[in-house]
Design goal:
- This protein is α/β, with parallel strands linked by helices and 302 residues long.
- The chain has ten helices and eleven strands.
- The strands form three sheets. A six-stranded parallel β-sheet has the order 1-11-8-7-5-6. It has a three-stranded parallel β-sheet with strand order 3-2-4, sandwiched between helices. Strands 9-10 form a two-stranded antiparallel sheet.
- A hairpin with a 6-residue loop joins strand 9 and strand 10.
- The structure holds guanine (GUN).
Length: 302
């Protein structure tokens, strides 16, 4: 193996320790801790496992946390009512509605109903706009792209002037990370190309990348011959390709695969993120960071 592994599990520990220390300091000086509400509608196993981990992490860093587990047939009106309740709740700094929502609920309407100052996911159009403007305007960078940028920076990879190629154009990852990497800012200043399902020659674009960020949701899409030797490869794919019995718990767990052919790519890349244990742990970590930030904005200390 020639590539250096960028481990989200390790970076997560560093950042969570920083958050724990800040929460303790704010508690001592201001007598408050961040408050986060997680809203889960339905019983999708993937969503349940993500939300459970978010709750566990919130506890670990000393936040107050409220769980709203709602049935699959919850009406849109009732969900909007819940959001309104927490928008008005002074003890809540962050509102997280786990996506995807059941088909009968208009996701856009729901995301737009969250107070932009409590939108720790960074999905509200106001926060998307703030991200686009950049600089001091940015309040809550969306969690997965923020985690990706943090990993690149903490690994010591130069971003200024780098060719960044983003594979995928989703609202959650592709569009925001592309926007963040070309900003005039530390950890950015890159030249960015976004490629997608209609791009004519994916391989040729990827091969130019100094930093290749892959968020396509297609297992093994990126082949080793698409990778420039020494490039930094960030694999955002979390594809469930089967099930196995966990040696630790004896329970059935998903077998995960990324969007990059990891075993071959690691012989060519300079840096690479594994799946699992790469970008995944960073998303929840940055959610904690945004929730803490929300309280700091409220207290006027940033
Ligand atoms: N579903 C998949 N990723 C996310 C995320 O980052 N936030 C929320 N709220 N739902 C998700």
């Amino acid at each position: 193996m020639s590539a250096k592994l960028i481990k989200g599990t390790e970076i997560r520990e560093q950042i969570l320790e920083e958050i724990i220390a800040e929460v303790a300091e704010i508690k001592e000086k201001h007598g408050v801790v961040p408050g986060l509400v997680t809203i889960l509608v339905g019983e999708s196993p993937a969503s349940i496992s993500y939300v459970t981990l978010k709750i566990k992490t919130a506890h670990r860093v000393g936040f107050n946390e409220i769980q709203e587990s709602q049935p699959d047939d919850l009406s849109e009106e009732a969900l909007l009512g819940l959001i309104d309740k927490y928008n008005k709740d002074d003890a809540i700094n962050g509102i997280l509605v786990q996506l995807p929502l059941p088909k009968h609920i208009d996701e856009k309407k729901v995301l737009n109903a969250i107070d932009p100052d409590k939108d720790v996911d960074g999905f509200h159009p106001v926060n998307v706009g703030r991200l686009m403007i950049g600089g001091d305007e940015v309040k809550f960078p969306p969690c997965t792209p923020a985690g990706i940028q943090e990993m690149i920076v903490r690994a010591g990879v130069e971003t200024s002037g780098a060719e960044v190629v983003v594979v995928g154009r989703s609202n959650i990852v592709g569009k925001p990370i592309a926007n963040m990497m070309f900003q005039k800012a530390a950890g950015a200043n890159s030249t960015v190309t976004v490629v997608h399902t209609r791009t004519k020659d994916l391989a040729a674009h990827c091969l130019r990348a100094d930093i290749l960020i892959v968020a396509a949701g297609v297992p093994g899409l990126v082949k080793p011959e698409w990778i420039k030797p020494g490039a930094c490869v960030i694999d955002v794919g979390v594809n469930r390709i089967g099930e196995k019995i966990s040696e630790k718990t004896g329970k059935k767990i998903a077998i995960l695969s990324g969007d990059v052919d990891f075993d071959a790519a690691k012989e060519i890349a300079g840096y690479i993120t594994p799946v699992p244990g790469g970008v995944g742990p960073m998303t929840i970590t940055m959610l904690m960071k945004n929730t803490l930030k929300s309280l700091k904005f409220k207290l006027g200390i940033i």
